[in-house]
Amino acid sequence: MRVPPLTICEKAVILEALRSGKRFDFRSLEEFRDVKLVVGSEVGTAICTIGNTKVMAAVSAQIAEPSSMRPNKGVINIDVDLSPMANVANEHDRLGSKGMELIRLLELIIRDSRCIDVESLCIRAGSEIWKVRVDVRILDEDGSLLDCACLAAITALQHFKRPNVSLEAHHTLIYSEYEKAPVPLNIYHMPICTTIGLLDKGQMVVIDPTEKEAACLDGSIVVACNKRREVCALHQSTNLVLTTKQIERCVKLAMARAEALTAVVSSIIKEDRQERSAFKRPDGFAITTPSLILTTGTAASRQIKAPVTKREPESSQRSLYQPSVIINENPLSVGSVKQEEVDEDELLAEQLTTIQNSVGQVAVTDNQNTVMSNRKREVEEVNNLLEGLDDSEEEEEIQTMTLGPSEPVVNTKMVVEEEAPPIGLVKRKKKK
Amino acid sequence: MAGRLREMRCELSFLKNADGSACFSQGSTCIWASCSGPGDVHASKANEEAMTLDISYRANCGDNKFSVLNNIIQSTISKAINLELFPHTTIAVTIHGIQDDGSIGAVAINGACFALLDNGMPFEAVFCGVLVVRVKDELIIDPTAKQEASSTGRVLFAVFNGTDGHPEVCSMDAIGQWDFNQLEAAWSLAQPSATAIFEFYRSVMQRKHSIDEH
Amino acid sequence: MFLKCITHLYLNQLILHYLLFHGNNHVNVSDMSIYLPGDVINEPSSSDSSIIGYGINLRGDKRLVTQPGALRSEEGKVWLSVHSKRYIPQEGDRVIGIVTSKTGDFFRLDIGTAEYAMINFTNFEGATKRNRPNLKTGDIIYATVFDSTPRTEAELTCVDDEKRARGMGQLNGGYMFKVSILKLDMDCYLYFVQVSLNHCRRLISPSCKILLTLGNFFKFEITVGMNGRIWINASTTDDIIKIHDILVKSELVTDEDELIAMVQNNYTRSV
């Protein structure tokens, strides 16, 4: 579906406000929106919210074969899902350029920055490694999509625990969570992403722009760094020319943010670990919003009582074998069965029944032994016809007839032919 | 026969970009559903006579090109909405599974109905989903993940609220061996559950509309 | 039953607005009956109404509900107040449209519906073949829907039958935003206010005090389109930001005192 275009008046007001240092959500130009992080009750799931942007990440692991170039390194795959829930312009199962950019950037930040120890994911060099899959689901878009996705992915990776394995001589033993505690991933550092919008050819920075603001700005730059003051990624999708000083300024802002957010993520993971070590299964994403909000509702768990249905004693007799019988011609398939075909089928069925009735002496079992090939049958037929011309009263040997409706019934016995001439006539018409 | 429906919680209109959105949970199973439309559709997918439905259930892990639940949700919604009222338009219903603790199919159908209600577009009747499983000859409604894993048969009912107030079955999705007696028993268990869920819909919408009371 | 509400703003919650209830514990609003799609309306108060309005369909003898909402009846009209965000074009509605392109004699506008809307350049006040209205892509106009057959582009007009504008036409400067649509009132009041569908109709209904309260504090100009778009104009950008904030947040406020308190907070708040 299409999104309404940006109007001239909106752009003018937003730019004027930004140039005088004001924003529509009462933030300053260098202020970030509040971040909310929740981890789920299944290991490796997290939902991150920055303002109105909401992203969920889920991590799972599988055993797979490594690539021949890196036989002792695990693999991390990242997948992003953009659905119409996030933005009506998106389509189901279709990534578009925005989605591809997001995947590439997340791979850059998480995989290429080597924040996860992939060698610890190796089980047996050359044959078995852990393949970790990070699924990022974008639930609502309102600017700073990459920041939110990166944070959710990092939290989910920190939260995730893979099953414990032990190597035996000829096989690998995978333990369930009840036998041996699962093992967390070995993560070296946490790259945190910051989107910084730029105005007036880079002279003005607008931190963490919302979608409307981002549409009015000249461009934006994305900086990913960690709390050790290392820059993990630097990316710009527009074509602004920036001076070193401008970039340094953005990086400085991003560093401060990375420190603050790393502390938040660590505290959330720590709280969750404490809860789980006390053997409490946490609520996770179950709704804990207060019942005071007008658009919410709660219904307590309740007993359902239903009347007992009559249970007839099950009949123990098994029905005898029944050949397939056509109950109904399918009247609903429009245009799939042509009218002539229907008549032919009916005709064949009629013919079958009359033949079955008239040719009483042909035992059913005979058919099995004496099925002749088509060619042979034709030759026989011709012979019979020729012979029949000479003396039609002679008894002929009983030819078998295949009674399948798909093939035309071969009517070679002259006696039968005489007994049921209309069938024969019809037969000949059909053969033409 | 008796059963237990888990605690239901719901929140509406919390997504900024979707026309109608619902976060619905039964016990620990939670989904987010959104419904946007009727909106414009690309000419390649447009249907001149009726509305096109774009419905997808997406689990939180794995590739989401196809899900088993898409079929039953699509058939339920296409019966619920009079598609010929909105030719050459489309409606996009997306359901994300957030947390799965059993009975995710039923929760998804309920969430979809809430999203449709929140959207406010015209449709014929409300619907809900009820999952009944059979564990060792005993029928359980709204099972948890543990109960579902140990079940020998599962049947998911998509239920409509008929015009006389009685629940009517729209479609069923059964896994495992069921004979007619057991199906009848499962349906008789599902009916009061469906009625309870419809009551919940009413109470949530009542609360949402209470803003109009001046 | 009397509802007393206080608004608080918690920016770090997952949902932006919520209300706290005081006093009455149960939420039942007794005078209002809520209907869900599929219900049949049997209330005696509505049986003498001759005009069946929004959200109700007449099927044979029965009045079948097709949209969820609260029943309203007034002077022979009965309808449901429905909350929604997406606009479905109705003839006679005043809407705000964004100009997307110009083709021949028509401007093509986006009014938030599935199809685009069109307006002929002659349907403006004072427009002649020589004197065409000067609209560019991205401009907004306030117009009336006068032809809305399904599956075709809705046609709009900026003049009424007597070729007078009556407040319609291009909206200059100011700021536009979108809110949800509430089909609260059957009559559309003909002054300019833009609000979400719900919120829209509520704002322009006479029983709503929001605009009057706002007027005590700010000097502003406002236009409401039935398609959920609001256009406001004030003397400074500061004021525009504050008014925008109040209008968006007032969607869930019903009590007058709280409203005044909120406006006051906003007015004295520094941006």
TrEMBL record, chain A:
GO terms for molecular function: mRNA 3'-UTR AU-rich region binding. Coiled coil: none annotated. It is found in: Cytoplasm; Nucleus. GO terms for cellular component: cytoplasmic exosome (RNase complex); nuclear exosome (RNase complex). Transmembrane segments: none annotated. Keywords: Cytoplasm, Nucleus, RNA-binding. CDD domains: RNase_PH_RRP45. Its main location: cytoplasm. Residues 31-163, 189-256 form the Exoribonuclease phosphorolytic domain. GO terms for biological process: exonucleolytic trimming to generate mature 3'-end of 5.8S rRNA from tricistronic rRNA transcript (SSU-rRNA, 5.8S rRNA, LSU-rRNA); nuclear mRNA surveillance; nuclear polyadenylation-dependent rRNA catabolic process; rRNA catabolic process; TRAMP-dependent tRNA surveillance pathway; U1 snRNA 3'-end processing; U4 snRNA 3'-end processing; U5 snRNA 3'-end processing. It comes from the Eukaryota. The keyword Transit peptide does not apply. Belongs to the RNase PH family. This is Exosome complex component RRP45. It comes from Caenorhabditis remanei.
TrEMBL record, chain B:
It comes from the Eukaryota. GO terms for cellular component: cytoplasmic exosome (RNase complex); nuclear exosome (RNase complex); nucleolus. The keyword rRNA processing applies. Keywords: Exosome, Nucleus, rRNA processing. Gene3D superfamilies: GHMP Kinase, N-terminal domain. The keyword Nucleus applies. GO terms for molecular function: RNA binding. Residues 5-122, 126-165 form the Exoribonuclease phosphorolytic domain. It is found in: Nucleus. GO terms for biological process: nuclear mRNA surveillance; poly(A)-dependent snoRNA 3'-end processing; rRNA catabolic process; rRNA processing; U4 snRNA 3'-end processing. Belongs to the RNase PH family. This is CRE-CRN-5 protein. It comes from Caenorhabditis remanei. The lineage of its organism: Eukaryota, Metazoa, Ecdysozoa, Nematoda, Chromadorea.
TrEMBL record, chain C:
InterPro entries: Exosome_RNA_bind1/RRP40/RRP4, KH_dom_type_1, KH_dom_type_1_sf, NA-bd_OB-fold, RRP40_KH-I, Rrp40_S1, S1_domain. One of its GO terms (biological process) is poly(A)-dependent snoRNA 3'-end processing. It holds the Pfam family KH_6. Residues 90-159 form the S1 motif domain. The keyword Hydrolase does not apply. GO terms for cellular component: cytoplasmic exosome (RNase complex); nuclear exosome (RNase complex); nucleolus. CDD domains: KH-I_Rrp40 (cd22526), S1_Rrp40 (cd05790). It comes from the Eukaryota. The keyword Mitochondrion does not apply. Keywords: Cytoplasm, Exosome, Nucleus, RNA-binding, rRNA processing. It is found in: Cytoplasm; Nucleus, Nucleolus. GO terms for molecular function: RNA binding. Belongs to the RRP40 family. This is Ribosomal RNA-processing protein 40.
